[in-house]
Amino acid sequence: FLAGGAFIKVPAGVVVDKPIIVLHWSEGEGIVTFPHTLVVADESSEITVVDRFGSPDVGDSGHLVDAVVELLVGDNARLRYLSVQEHGPKTWQVALQRAHVGRDASLHSSAVALGGDYARLRSESLLEGDNAESDLMAVYFGDHTQMLDFRTLQDHDAPNTRSDLLFKGAVEDQAHSVYSGLIRLRPEARKAVANQTNRNLVLTEGAGADSIPNLEIEANDVKCSHASAVGPIDEEQLYYLESRGVRPEDAERLIVLGFFDDVLERLPVPTLVRALRRSVVEKVEHRRG
Question: Do residues 103 and 127 lie in contact, with contact meaning Cβ atoms separated by under 8 Å?
Fold first, then answer.
């Protein structure tokens, strides 16, 4: 039971121009590791943090990663956070990410999940100050027999708060994904605005995706929406590209990249986008060797 991890504290009024990157590398067969990241952004500060979670591609037995991320965003502070999960195929992950967002503060939280055997991320955002904002985004892609499991909570406990969630995923082979999200507007959350969108592509027979959006509204004078979609690639889009001379395999790759692009382009560290696109392409193309 590891005690420790990464602790990042930004004093009041300090702006950190370049991202701070934390690498959590977990290895060893049949054991458990406990990565822990704590970020404290004091009043009127600004910072970008990247957590990278990885484990080896080889090994005969499993490894469990029990990760915790705490994000404390002070009044009028700005925190951009990105987690990238690229575990090996024998690793299980159970991760909790919890954020507290203060008055006039903003959180921009993004997640990329590409690895692991079974990988769960529970992401919670508590808006506890007037005019607090949070944007939650994720890109995930499962292949082989992966199981990617996401649970989210947008928790509004103050007036004039705003949250927006956009999760996009794809599955192929025998992989499966589950998204379950809740928007909770407590009695204090007058004039809150909250949106939740989950979209999934199922690329092959045998793969599956479940999407379960939920609302719990206890306040008046609010605006809320939730939407989810699960389905294959649009045949008309494939036909359009193929009728213009694009090979079928190239057309599929272009459509999948286009599906993810609006999330990838909004990640807080643009220099990572090219590598993440390449990882998505490798997932699409692995079926063709």
Answer: no
d(CA 205, CA 215): 31
Separation CA 243–CA 60 (nearest Å): 46
Sign of CA dihedral 102, 103, 108, 114: positive
List, for residues 84-131, the tens digit of each pLDDT value: 999 999 999 999 999 999 999 999 999 999 999 999 999 999 999 999
pLDDT digits (tens, 9 = 90+) for 211-234: 999 999 999 999 999 999 999 998
Q: Find the DSSP H helices in 38-157.
A: none
Query: Which pTM value belongs to this model?
Result: 0.94
Rounded Cα distance, 115 and 275, in Å: 14
- The Cα–Cα gap between 155 and 107 comes to 13
CA-CA distance, 54 to 87, in Å (whole number)?
A: 4
Q: Torsions phi, psi of 72, nearest 5?
A: -110, 110
